[in-house]
Amino acid sequence: MNEALPDLFAHFNVKQGLFRRRERVQAALFELDDYGCVMKTDKLFEPGDTLVLDLVMEMPFDDIRADGINGLVTERRKHCSNFFYSIDFSELNSDDQAGLPGKLRRIRDVLSKKQSLRSRRATGPASSIRQSA
What we know:
Elements: E1 8-16, E2 21-32, E3 36-41, E4 50-57, E5 64-79, E6 82-89, H1 100-122, H2 125-132
Antiparallel strand pairs: 1-2, 1-4, 2-3, 3-6, 4-5, 5-6
């Protein structure tokens, strides 16, 4: 978990304050698969808490979204003033191609292409020229 996933964020609401005002939070994702994700935020949650996440992959023309994903916090790890949370997705039906699993699959496909392009750029001829200099 060295680097956040490119252009992918989780959005969720947190109740805050005496009057239970809701705050919209954006958190970086560090892992994503069919079963869950790992996100980093400064908000405090306990294992067993549930969240409703909106995953958004920012694209040049139109963002790819998977809204209303129910997640269960299964693990919390402290890192400086932030926390890494392991979140398991619940209630995903893999048979529904057009619904949430289809949108998550689309996000993961685009994500793997972006990571592949980044790794090719990092190991391309320009990086070997910098190493030899």
